[in-house]
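How a chain folds remains the central question behind the approach discussed here. For one protein, we set the task of working out the structure tokens from the amino acid sequence alone. The sequence in question and its structure tokens are set out directly beneath this paragraph.

_____
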Amino acid sequence: MSEKLWCLKRCSLFQQLTPDQIGRIESRSRSRSFPAHSPIYIPAERADCVFLLASGLVKMCHLTAEGKESILAFVEPGELFGEMAMFDAPQRDEFVESIRPSTVVMIPIEEMHHLMTERADVALGITKIVGLRRQRIERRLKNLLFLSNRERLVHLLLDLAEQFGWQADDGIRLRIRLSHQDLANLIGSTRETVTILLGKLKSEGCVAGGRRKIVLTNPAQLAQIVNRQPPREAHPYLRPTLALVAG
């Protein structure tokens, strides 16, 4: 079985497709590998395909005119990204970069449109992907406008636990490794501020870890800080189906 076919079959969105439909997508798609810290696409680039991450880890972000990075989302294996190209967006808006060595499957827009016409469940799934991603980004923007640095960081940790967390004996561990600067870029703060806030949360018994490893030792207490529910399981259309273990 080719890597493309294996990846397509593992994607939650495509698991109910017929063998003929999967074979057609595979024949019309192409795969490409990127070393770590390489741009997968940049703003203003032509948007003529949707990407499915086969392996690795990538981040979606915006760059300001001053070159400052604002991270919008992380993408794990088994997830689609660049999906806005399906909605008559001729150019890319965001910057996407590989964090680890990554391989993507590039599915032509025409093929995705054909599939959405054939399969109502795929069209609904893509709509949910767009809606859920935008909901996360909008919530982060609202937090940036109205909440303190501490509250924004707590919300972020809870969001990451929902998307990347797995239950361990000592709490919810994040599969994704993030530096303090990464966290700062996600909440619109500074590395120094994030370091201080994480130190306080550790002293309160809410989090633990080090060297880019984060454990939510008391997620219920974290949730109480910002008056929200403890982390819940990720939505199936945004839940990776390929194993990803932080090395």
User: Anything to note?
Assistant: The radius of gyration is 18 Å. The first helix runs from residue 3 to 10. DSSP finds eight helices and twelve strands in the chain. The first strand starts at residue 30 and ends at 34.
